[in-house]
Amino acid sequence: MADLARKVASTPHSAIREMAQLARGIPDAIRLETGDPDFVTPVHIIEAAAKAARDGFTKYTPSAGLPSLRERIAEKVRDRNGIDVPPEQVIVTTGGGGGLFTTFLVLLDPGDEVLVPDPGWPGYPAQVHFLGGVTVRYPLDRGRGFEPDLEALEACIGPRAKVLVVNSPSNPTGAVYGPETLGALLEIARRRDLWVVSDECYDELVFDGEHTSMAALGDRDRVLTVFTFSKSYAMTGWRVGYVVGPREFAEALAKAQEPVVANCSAVSQKAAEAALLGPQDVVREMREAYRRRRDDATALLDAAGVGYVRPRGAFYLMADVSASGEPSTEFARRLLLEQHVSVVPGIAFGRHGEGSVRVSLSVAPDVLHAGVERLAAAVSRSAAAV
Ligand code: PLP
Predict the structure, then answer these.
(1) Domain 6-41+281-385 adopts which CATH fold?
(2) 167 within ligand 1 shell (Cβ under 6 A)
(3) What is the C-alpha separation between 318 and 358, in angstroms, rounded?
(4) Domain assignments of the chain as residue spans, ordered by start
(5) Cα(146)–Cα(144) distance, rounded to whole angstroms?
(6) How many CB atoms neighbour CB 3 within 10 A?
């Protein structure tokens, strides 16, 4: 066989998928490594999609998305995110992941640097690598609830820096940044003339306080905001996301996705439209369920004396397993093999994730309870043995 491209071969497999693969070999494993909501897509959304398919939404759509969906999204980002833009500045993408990739495609020339949070979603460095960009990690400060270390961030910004990635609510930390932190990040971007890619894929999943959209604070010509239907509406399999940005950028994004995917699936776009038009209590109910799980999991960790950073949003929790004396990868493997609980080693999210493991709250409450109990017991046991 002829060679495959080096950039794909040299990209490490996501440790999340690796853990999932290992866990599949253990039939009774408690699966806390997943980032996929355990809820099914609300039924009115499924029915609207079935109707749309029958009504002929089985063809290509404009590459920027169906005009009717772009209009609904423009209303949503105005009302819920405080970003007042016309539908022309909204581009429908294949999930948040597709939105991020095409955004980087539009922004990056080979060698351009992208500042990525550490710990942060592993998809960012992989995408940047595929596109010939260079990832520079900036540290989040565990001691301050995984807020960005602004001084350290400034020190990371070199002459090739072009994009600053901000992710709030955060995967994996659950941190939610307030206007002060977001304003400070925006000020740095302004001063250093950087694009900001604001990944707000968990915008509706905030337990404490409120979500602030970066673009609502100003600099609309600099901030490109990525959203998705995947998490808020339990629609990961439908692959619908959207990006909001200045007009010229939006036009480039639609142009860039045309030769690759043409457009997001027509049926899925109609499903997304139904999600925005239909009752929103489904979002509230799922958010409340995640909140109760967060409270239960943290109570179990408190009782066992295991440290963690209290997540204020998204549906993940970083539990401190450093007392075990093991690197997070070894701890996670041992937890899976001995206790049949699968979590993601913190190192999968960057150097600053080391010492922690990520627990997903997107599983049934009794399953989560049992898994966190075993995790806490495993930390305490190995701490006693160290
Ligand atoms: N951004 C973050 C921070 C994520 O956690 C994820 C998925 O887990 C994505 C983007 C991609 O989401 P989507 O399913 O919409 O592609």
Answers:
(1) Aspartate Aminotransferase, domain 1 (3.90.1150)
(2) yes
(3) 5
(4) 6-41+281-385, 45-277
(5) 6
(6) 6
Q: How many residues does the chain have?
A: 386
Question: What class does CATH assign to 45-277?
Answer: alpha beta
Contact criterion met (CB below 8 Å) for 253 and 244: no
- Write the pLDDT tens digit of every residue in 326-335: 999 999 999 9
Per DSSP bridges, beta strands 161-167 and 316-320 are unpaired
228 lines ligand 1 (CB under 6 A): yes
Burial of 374 (0-12, 13-18, 19+ CB in 10 A): middle
Give the tokens for residue 378. 């495993």
The CA 1 to ligand 1 mean position distance, Å, reads 34
Pairing of strands 113-118, 161-167: parallel
Q: What single-letter DSSP state applies at residue 39?
A: S
Per-residue confidence band for 382, with pLDDT thresholds at 50, 70 and 90: confident
**Mind giving me the DSSP string for 181-241?**
HHHHHHHHHHHTT-EEEEE-TTTT-BSSS----GGGGS-TTTEEEEEESTTTTT-GGG--E
pTM of the shown model: 0.97
From ligand 1's centre to the CA of 237, what distance in Å?
A: 12
pLDDT digits (tens, 9 = 90+) for 189-246: 999 999 999 999 999 999 999 999 999 999 999 999 999 999 999 999 999 999 999 9
Kind of pairing between the strands at 134-141 and 147-148 = antiparallel
Q: From the CB of 119, is ligand 1 less than 6 Å away?
A: no
